[in-house]
Specification:
Oligomer: single chain
Radius of gyration: 20 Å
Number of helices: 4
Low-confidence stretches: none
Mean pLDDT: 86
Strand order of the largest sheet: 2-3-4-6-5
Strand content: 35-45%
Order of helices and strands: HEEEEHHEEEH
Amino acid sequence: MINKMLSIRKIFIIIISLVMLIPFIPDKMAVSEPQRENYIICMMERETDSDWCIIDDDGNWIRDIQVLNDNDVLYRYGYEFRCSNNIYYLYGEFIDEENNIFQMESWDIKYPVKRNLFSFIPIKRFVCLFDKWY
């Protein structure tokens, strides 16, 4: 009887541990430098009509841009994560330089990953499933 209770307790602890670890499964790894050619360094913009702005290596604003094919970045993660001032490498090309329209093919997030409200999460090397939900 005691052995059966101990095994049920172990199973319960394992299930609870798994449920607590699932949100921290990596979804996208952060990179310290661009992985391809033809990239721009950007941040998500919250204060203008544009969703993105190009920044320089020091994080200074250069100009607002419109990015095509950015739904994977804009809507893949929760609002709180999108407002965390992370820096992104967007790969692709300008299809209309005069109107600042950039055709994105893929993207990376720059290390370290930042979080606003959930800054207690010590994971800086990757974006995790938890970031999709909040």
